[in-house]
Specification:
Layout (H helix, E strand, L loop, with lengths): L5 E6 L4 H14 L3 E4 L12 H8 L7 E4 L2 E2 L5 H14 L4 E6 L5 H7 L6 H17 L3 E4 L4 E5 L13 E4 L3 H10 L2 E4 L4 H17 L8 E10 L3 H16 L7 H4 L1 E3 L1 H13 L4 E6 L6 H11 L1 H5 L2
Parallel strand pairs: 1-2, 1-12, 2-3, 3-5, 4-5, 5-8, 8-9, 9-10, 10-11, 10-12
Antiparallel strand pairs: 6-7
Helix pairs in contact: 1-11, 3-5, 6-7
Length: 309
């Protein structure tokens, strides 16, 4: 595969001034985007994603902002459409709406009053609701969960007909949704061979739906830890992800981690690039106080390896 991949960074939640310092530095370092994860209730502290991204808009000029990924089933889609349209206006058209189904924390759905078993169907419909409200004045929609007639949300997004929607997930349903509805796809905890197979499935789903995928973003949420050697980096990777997701990540490190020296991490990234990935969202698995230092290291030792392609 040829071409220069895009690189973004997904940040942890820091105290506000520290958060904004890192975001400003990301723009200076040449990253293409900055991302926020999204949960209403989670195992570790996490700011509300759209509110957090809105705080980045007056302190940046170039870098894109995105959700990776927004749990759309947990929110009323009309409210999500209004908030994301506003965010796109505030950022001058720099917003990427990454959406996903979630479900690994069932109590989160209970908290929001959403049946866990309906989450996939709700996201599929909500994507269409959001796009309709972004695009049409007035807008009308008749669905299973949402119905309205001749209403309008204004102002509309700067990006027309709306911000790109990247679909997160690795299940068959997520791949089909990406092919039918997405402007991009974001994988996580997959290996390069499965990534290549998933790209083929997305393209098949798009073809069946009569869509072309010109400009489609094939992204990967990359759990990366750069260290002086593989073993020390692996120890940090396992410790921190096991805490974040409340499960043992030790058996997953060799399969799914981008771990080790800068050269070892770059080699793993290259394998994904060869499998069809053209965008890497780097989630640095380090202690929070080390995140900026880690991103500086990545910018100095990994990103230049791909800049000349």
């Amino acid at each position: 595969m040829t071409g220069v991949p895009g690189f973004g960074a997904q940040l942890r939640s820091h105290p506000p001034e520290r958060q904004w310092q890192i975001v400003r530095r990301l723009e200076d370092l040449g990253f293409d985007s900055v991302w926020s994860g999204d949960h209403v209730a989670f195992n570790v502290p996490l700011h509300e994603s759209l509110t957090l991204l809105a705080s980045y808009t007056p302190i940046t000029r170039r870098i894109r902002i995105g959700t990776c990924v927004y749990l759309l089933a947990l929110r009323a889609p009309a409210v999500a459409a209004k908030m994301t349209a506003t965010l796109d206006v505030l950022s001058g058209g720099r917003f990427i709406f990454g959406v996903g189904v979630g479900g690994e924390i069932p109590k989160e759905f209970e908290l929001c009053g959403v049946p866990h078993r309906e989450r996939g169907a709700r996201v599929t419909e909500a994507i269409d609701v959001v796009r309709t409200l972004w695009r049409d004045t007035p807008a009308t929609f008749e669905g299973r969960f949402t119905r309205f007639k001749e209403v309008s949300i204004d102002p509309k997004p700067v990006q027309r007909p709306g911000p790109p929607i990247w679909i997160g997930g690795r299940s068959d349903a997520a791949l089909a949704r990406a092919g039918r509805q997405g402007d991009g796809w974001v994988s996580y905890v997959v290996q390069p061979d499965r990534y290549r197979e998933s790209v083929a499935r997305i393209r098949a789903a798009a073809q069946a739906a009569g869509r072309t995928l010109d400009g489609f973003a094939y992204a990967h949420l990359t759990f990366i830890t750069v260290g002086r050697d593989y073993e020390s980096a692996k120890a940090d990777w396992v410790r921190l992800l096991s805490r974040r997701y409340a499960q043992d990540f030790a058996p997953l490190a060799e399969k799914y981690g981008v771990i080790g020296t800068a050269e070892q991490c770059a080699e793993k990234i290259e394998r994904f690039r060869e499998a069809g990935c053209n965008y890497f969202i780097l989630d640095t698995i380090v202690d929070p106080e080390q995140q900026q230092e880690h991103l500086e290291l990545i910018a100095a030792e990994i990103l230049p390896r791909f800049a000349s392609r």
